[in-house]
Amino acid sequence: CRVVVNYYPIPAMQKDAEDLVASWSGGAGGLAIGADLTKLEQVGDMFAKIEQELGHLDIVVNNAGVLKDRTLAKMTPEEWQQVLDVNLQAAFFVAKYALPLLQMGSSLIGISSISGVYGNFGQSNYAASKAGLIGFYKSLAKELGPKGIRVNCIAPGLVESPMSEQIPQEARDLMIKKTPLRRLGRPEDIAQAVCFLASRQASYITGHVLHVDGGLSF
């Protein structure tokens, strides 16, 4: 398959993206494209390159995300806006430009969070953005379903990642204690859920929010 990987346009991320494309494409060729997804013009340029090289898209995974945790009393307007820009507005930009390249059988998958379903202390900006993503994708599922395009979200719990390492260890330990499977999620747990939702096995699933959280949310 031919894979496109977007990266934030700095040299350190470019090398990682190019390595991923080489690994995943298996000689079929692919693209690593630098673009700041909060910038409409850069997103448009990225999808113009994709259309020129690939013509259409079968699967789109929106995985951009950022944390700026603060209680409301301490949160600045800039911290609120940055999280909304990356986690929600960028998803709109991506979906808007991806839409002309989608076709019957295509799948659009967003990475939300259980914080977007239940809220979380000190994460009003993050939870609002992830809840907004769920509402956005559920609406798209209704709009695009008649065209044979499926739209779903994944709501991970706490996953081992550089972003989650920003969370204090005490809070991480408490989250593990509350999780029936007694561990944090791993990136491959989320990747496997994405693969399922993108597959033919999920061909009758749309508008769904799949919780991948070790049982934390039930």
Give descriptors for this structure:
218 residues, four-stranded parallel β-sheet, two-stranded parallel ribbon, single chain, 6 strands, globular
Written description of the protein model:
The protein is of the alpha/beta class and 218 residues long. The chain has one domain: NAD(P)-binding Rossmann-like Domain (Rossmann fold). It contains 7 helices and 6 strands, in the order βαβαβαβααβααβ. It has helices spanning 11-25, 40-54, 77-98, 115-118, 124-144, 169-178, 187-198; strands spanning 4-7, 31-34, 59-62, 107-111, 150-156, 209-212. A 4-stranded parallel β-sheet has the order 3-4-5-6, sandwiched between helices. Strands 1-2 form a two-stranded parallel sheet. The protein is globular. The mean pLDDT is 94.
Please outline the major beta sheet: 4 strands, parallel
Structural class: alpha/beta
Tell me the quaternary state: single chain
Can you tell me the CATH topology? Rossmann fold
Strand runs, count: 6
- The N- and C-terminal alpha carbons lie at a distance of 37 Å
Helix proportion range: 40-55%
Which CATH top level class fits? Alpha Beta
Q: What is the CATH H-level superfamily?
A: NAD(P)-binding Rossmann-like Domain
Q: What is the beta-strand fraction?
A: 5-15%
Q: Which blocks of ≥5 consecutive residues have pLDDT under 50? A: none
**Strand order in the sheet with the most strands:** 3-4-5-6
CATH architecture: 3-Layer(aba) Sandwich
Task: Please trace the helix and strand order, writing H or E for each element.
Answer: EHEHEHEHHEHHE
Average pLDDT number: 94
Count of discrete domains: 1
